[in-house]
Amino acid sequence: MSNRRKGKAWLLSATAAILITTAACSSNNNSNASTSTASPSTDASAAAPEGTKDAQAEINLKAYAEPVTVTIGATVGAGINYPEGESVDDNIHTRLNKEMLNIEYKNKFVVEASKLSEKINLAIASDDLPDVLLVGTEQMQKMIKNDQLADLSQVYDQYASAELKRNLEYQNRVSFVPAETDGKLYGIPAPKDYGNSIPVMYIRQDWLDALGLKPPKTMDELTAVAKAFVESDPDKNGQKDTFAISLESGMNTLAMDAIASAFGAYPSIMVKDASGQIVYGSTQPEMKEALKKMQELYKLGAFDPEFGIKDYAVTVEKIMAGKVGILFGAFWNPLYPLKQNLENDPNAKWNAYPIPTLDGGAPVPKALPFTNEWIVVRKAFEHPEAIVKSMNLWTDMFISSKPELFPEAQKRWYEAIGSTHKGLEAHNYARPFFFDSPFGNLEVGRELRAYHESNDESKLVSAKAKDVFTNQIKPGGLQAWAMEKMYYEAEAVLDGYKELVYPAYVGASTPTMLSKGPTLGKLESETFVNIIMGASIDTFDAFVEKYHKLGGDDILKEINTQK
User: Fold this and answer.
1) What is the rounded distance in angstroms from the CA atom of residue 343 to the CA atom of residue 265?
2) Splitting the chain (563 residues) into consecutive groups of 10 residues, what average pLDDT does each group show?
3) Are the C-beta atoms of residues 360 and 217 closer than 8 Å to each other?
4) Burial 286-313 (b: 16+ CB within 10 A, else e)
């Protein structure tokens, strides 16, 4: 990697991590709402923090002697499905918490998922809060200013199990930073899989084979493959009706991120320059070079000419119809839309590869924070440790490969999701709230690949790996194809990325971000689309100047004075 790139980007040495069940339902677009920084990664398989077990020797992490009631804000709607005999008030999670911990969860309110943020804002404004909530950065910061939240520092340190700490403190506690103020901890991270925002290159291997091409490792090779996919009739239907690369509208797309990173450019996030100052990635000189390459690709027909007005849902229709040869996507894209393409064309062959670079060296992709929500507790609540104890239970049920506190709960959980709760995505209503291991699927993927290479089922150690193999891969069919493609190929690609660039700013939106953000975002989007579609590349310089005048300088001043 060049010294220039080291100066421009904030680098993270990383190992990969993925969760299937929630990510497969999310958009391919990245979110830029709440950004955070991280220090060089700790190994996903590292031991639990030293002294954790000793410090907890005198603390009861299991059931209360007397029932403890916890009020909560619950949701219904998309992704929330109950088997017969269960409901939002009474289900597998409320029952296991009662049985294992003597904690009774009661719903203070129940709203449609789409209205949850509005309901929480009203509860904050009226100071009529449930005992526990799941909130984003802005809401958490507002509640901290209102003095509405309990300091969870001590209860987390004392009551969090070793396995819970191992997961939440991944990458040097980066997810805790937005929740810490004046030495106090006001929110416990609810992480998701860290691989959701990191691009993998999926390519039609049958098209490469038909044209005698190899998977591209450099940007020049990508351009050559794209040109062939557009001009050489790779699907052999006698028509010029194929696009090389899927690209949708919006700035936070994995295609743009993948291409830009080859030039050391990281759009839509804050990065650090050579002097250590925070600057905006979209306005750096490297971004101009990335846009020049995207303009070149557009001219040769690599993108849908109407990409600027087409969202992800529309662009994936062309993938499913077999009209696109390259998708820069997330690890879960074999489930959607690649599997649907195979349903339409059983002869299609997709393989996963690392994203190309300028010189064919190691990629350094952009990655967004894997935590953008935190579990917070009402200040006057008598038993804040109850929340941590429930998180211990969920960790043993769903995350841990060797549950120490609640092995019976894990056994019953996997029995349930393999039978009565099968296909219902019951993790969505976990108590207090769903969270996942940032690196859990990294470990599962390694187990599955070890089995795949040796045909030795003893390599499958964790309950999650056994479940994926038994219920998803072993039955065969397209679902098995998608799972194998994810774990054997996409997961291995992510595992091979040794450096990532995370956003360099983790705080809540500054005043100028709130007042000028929409205007600046519109300016950036329109400028980049116009450049890709053929406007003079020098338009970028005018954009940078205008961006800073309209508020960009003020944002950087506000951020850098907080450091």
Assistant:
1) 37
2) 34 33 37 34 47 59 95 92 96 98 98 95 97 96 96 97 95 90 96 93 97 98 98 92 92 91 97 93 98 98 92 91 96 96 97 97 94 96 98 96 93 94 94 94 92 94 91 95 97 95 85 94 96 97 98 95 74
3) yes
4) bbbbbbebbbebbeebbbbeebbebebe
